[in-house]
């Protein structure tokens, strides 16, 4: 399991990474993961999702050999806007574009255990700060490159949230009038480095007559989305289109990080998400090299390193949010 | 004089805005400016500059009807990198590319009065935070549009300095492979919105055969630089090139502010410097409108307003740095 430190205060907490397709839950004490559970996210509305979160907490407690009476708090990270325990504007969660009181609903379902809800990327950033690659730094920018691209900022060992929506590095403009982003904007980082946008670009290139093994691989492996595993296999096949898509993603990431660094001057950049998990340091090094070509203080670059918590970063961050 | 509040602790301080062409000094108690002095910056090296700063503090004290024995501290804002009272990498100050101990040299020249030195833009941001347009906000980004473009960040009522070089919004990339910046980079905000770059662009356009009244106006008014006053007169003449240069500057500022806001989600943007002082709210409104076209959370934009301290922002900020 992921290496963690052991400075927790001994209370037992649950951390829930609530995503559009799966719910990953851990039960932890300090940095120690005592049990975990994973379930699919129900697609029939927020009440069903809250119920599945409650069930997954119970399943994790059982896996840890303990029970609800021992649990002091639950943390949840979820995509979307979070204010006062209410989730809204969640792009991938059915029925959660409108406000839904996730915090109180889950707490009621768990007999009143305190629940803290925060944005999934903020929570993953908290995890990296306390239990992952950010432990050595007082300031860093985190970037999670997945279906979309999100980020977080740790300044003076605190997550900077702005008015509640800070860290949207995926929606920095890297190319004026450039590729259309999922949000409707143009030339955003996410339009080049998010896997959903990369897949759409590949579809447009194929429609224009270009060749790739990407969609054959997706069909062969039963995927309807261009996962990082599919991308890796395509690169192993020497697929030129995939290499071009990745090169463009690296270019966009380097540019956004360089502009961010001009503004923030942080000690480190921490890169997580599917592609970073799969390709690790070599991928991160390519981004760092690209960043270096446009960095203002090129003689004094920040450290650039992969996130350390991998697949459990969201759940571990949620456990930190709950007091682990 | 500039409206100021009156929450100072009663100690008498001097604030020095040390620029490449002039030294503006004030003597202040709290927010009240009691005396001021202005001198040209010597061009014969850092020791002469430090001497001129000492003289200007004396001249301000005299204008305020007081003397050195009453002075509790001096603040200085200067361009360049500042670390531990030492200035270096100062682009416009003769002999200050190499490190020079400005803080101790001025302090010795003033009989040991404590001196605090910081970056000019940081200091101007401090001024706006405590005595200017930033008083109502807990977080804002300041942008000073002058010969170059610099900025500062106030987060939770503290200036964020990063590792000492934060706030370089002028060196965010707004257009990949775009216009050459004074720093050597390409497509930086400063390459479109800094007056030095705007002048160079105008020179290239004239060399390519295009017409403008800009250089005639500079000759007529005895200017070797394209000041904001020259720009204003050219616009009054309906000069199409000047309008294009300004439109491009507004475009670049809007884009950089929109990307910055995606990252930071601050409450306000405060725009200062020569062009903002001269054109005020209408100029700032153009930038805000441009920003709005690419803002990620377009339904919840930050306030955008002109800096309030005008020409004295640097000196007032330096006085704040000294404890005013």
How would you describe this structure in keywords?
homodimer; 324 residues; alpha/beta; Nucleotidyltransferase, domain 5; five-stranded mixed β-sheet; globular; disordered N terminus
Description:
- The structure is a homodimer of 324-residue chains.
- Chain A contains ten helices and twelve strands.
- Chain A has helices at 46-63, 102-109, 120-131, 189-193, 195-207, 214-220, 228-236, 240-264, 274-294, 313-321, and strands at 12-18, 22-29, 32-40, 73-78, 81-83, 86-88, 115-119, 140-145, 149-155, 158-160, 268-272, 303-306.
- In chain A, the strands form three sheets. Chain A has a five-stranded mixed β-sheet, sandwiched between helices.
- In chain A, helix 3 crosses helix 10.
- In chain A, strand 1 and strand 2 form a beta hairpin.
- The first copy, chain A, folds into two domains: 12-126 and 312-321, Nucleotidyltransferase, domain 5 (2-Layer Sandwich); 136-307, Nucleotidyltransferase, domain 5 (2-Layer Sandwich), CATH 3.30.420.
- The radius of gyration of chain A is 20 Å and the shape is globular.
- Chain A is an alpha/beta fold and 324 residues long.
- In chain A, 39% of the residues lie in helices and 20% in strands.
- Residues 1-8 of chain A have low confidence and may be disordered.
């Amino acid at each position: 399991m992921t290496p963690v430190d052991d400075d927790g205060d001994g209370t037992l907490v649950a951390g829930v990474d609530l995503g559009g397709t799966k719910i990953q839950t851990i039960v932890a004490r300090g940095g120690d993961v005592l049990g975990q559970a994973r379930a699919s996210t129900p697609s029939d509305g927020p009440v069903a999702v809250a119920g599945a979160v409650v069930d997954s907490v119970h399943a994790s407690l059982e896996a840890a050999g303990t029970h609800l009476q021992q649990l002091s708090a639950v943390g949840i990270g979820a995509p979307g806007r979070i204010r006062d325990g209410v989730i809204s504007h969640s792009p991938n969660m059915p029925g959660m574009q409108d406000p839904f009181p996730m915090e109180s609903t889950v707490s009621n379902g768990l007999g009143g255990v305190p629940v803290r809800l925060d944005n999934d990327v903020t929570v993953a950033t908290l995890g990296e700060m306390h239990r992952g690659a950010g432990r050595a730094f007082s300031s860093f920018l985190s970037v999670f490159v997945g279906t979309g691209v999100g980020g977080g900022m740790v300044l003076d060992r605190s997550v900077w949230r702005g008015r509640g929506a800070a860290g949207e590095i995926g929606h920095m403009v890297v190319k004026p009038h450039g590729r259309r982003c999922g949000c409707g904007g143009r030339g955003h980082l996410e339009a080049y480095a998010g896997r959903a946008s990369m897949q759409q670009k590949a579809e447009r290139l194929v429609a224009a007559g270009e060749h790739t093994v990407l969609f054959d691989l997706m069909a062969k492996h039963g995927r309807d989305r261009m996962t990082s595993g599919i991308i890796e296999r395509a690169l192993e096949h020497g697929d030129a289109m995939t290499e071009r898509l990745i090169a463009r993603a690296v270019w966009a990431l380097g540019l956004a990080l360089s502009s961010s660094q001009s503004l923030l001057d942080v000690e480190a950049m921490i890169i997580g998400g599917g592609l970073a998990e799969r390709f690790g340091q070599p991928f991160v090094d390519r981004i760092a090299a690209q960043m270096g070509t446009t960095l203002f203080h090129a003689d004094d670059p920040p450290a650039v390193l992969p996130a350390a918590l991998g697949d459990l970063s969201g759940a571990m961050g949620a456990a930190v949010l709950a007091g682990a």
